[in-house]
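Q: Sequence in, structure out?
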Amino acid sequence: MSIASPFFEALIGKAVSHVWRGHGSAIFIEFGKLTPSTITRKNKTPGESVGELSLMIGWSWRIERPKSILGGSWSAVGQWPAMFEKLKGATVSDVQLFGHVPEICVSLSNGLRVVSFMTAEGQPEWALISHGPAIGNLSVRRGALYVEPPNL
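A: Exactly. Output:
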């Protein structure tokens, strides 16, 4: 059993409920029931709602169709909202890790896949963040999967 198994089991069957852009090319994909943010931004607006689980990809990501690339972090930012809309409502059908240094691929019921792929030196910039089940956060450190324990 991989340390990733509890995260993947929690993610399978969850619907994409919200997708939003973080800083730069970072994206956050929220899965499952949304909870309004408790954070207020500097401009006094509320923060983004979070799902039961979140996939954060810091940069170097793409959204794949079955036989082509829909777009990704190097696509024109103006195209991102339409790409994000295509993810909403689809459920997670599979989650896989690939590569010697682990990257993540989330397959959805509508045939789209969200894939991380770091193209710069260092570590992959992705994390599965659990807001619902108390399983912590999954990411990569020193080339291996790492679980940050939950804040209880």
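The helical segments are 5-11, 80-87.
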